[in-house]
Amino acid sequence: EPAIVIPVTLLSFDARDNGKNILLNWSTSTExxxxxxxxxxxxxxxxxxxxxxxxxxxxxxQISNYLYTDHxxxxxxxxxxRLRQTDIDNREKLSEIKKAKIKGSDIELSxxxxxxxxxxxxxxxxxxxxxxxxxxxxQGQLIRSWKNINxxxxxxxxxxxxxxxxxxxxxxxxxxxxxxxKLIID
Length: 186
What we know:
The structure is a single chain. Strands 1, 2, 3, 4, 5, 6 and 7 form a seven-stranded antiparallel sheet that branches. A four-stranded antiparallel sheet has the order 11-10-13-14, with no helix packed on it. Strands 8-9-12 form a three-stranded antiparallel sheet, with no helix packed on it. Helix content is 0%, strand content 60%. The protein has strands at 8-17, 22-42, 49-60, 64-70, 79-87, 92-94, 98-100, 108-112, 119-125, 131-137, 142-149, 156-159, 166-173, 178-185.
C-alpha cells in the first residue's frame, strides 16, 4: 500500500479575544502542496461559513506562522472557528474547532467613599489595561493626576490629602474609553 502523505502538519491553532476583534493564529511544521487555509466561523458550532482566506507556503519544511483577524465580531457572543486546509489539487482537511468571544464595553466605575477625605478607592470593571486618572475642580482646572494606575485587579488607592473640600470631577482614561464621575471631598 502506498503511504498516505499528510500534506500539512498543523502544530497549533488558537483563537483569542484581542480587544475589539478576535485574533486567530496557527502554525505548521511541514507543508506539501498547501494552497492555503479557508477560515470558517460559526455561531452555533454546527453551521460554518467562510470568512477569509490565508495563502499557504505551498512547500515548506520549516515552521510557518499564520495570523488572521476577525474584525466583524459583537461583544459577548461565542464564535467558533476552524481552518479548512486546502491542497493545490483541492483536497481539504478540517482543523479542530476553537472558540473565542470579546467582552462588552460595559465599563463600570466605582468610587468610594464619596464624599471622601484622605484616601479614595477607585475600581473599574470592564477595562483591560492601565488607567490615567485626573482630578478637576468645577472650573475645569487640573488639580491632581495619577498615571498608569492599575484599576483592574483591585481598587486603586488614591491619596487626596491636602486637597481643599468641595466638588470635583474625576476623569478616568482607559484604553477602551473615558469615564467621568462627580466626587465630593470633605
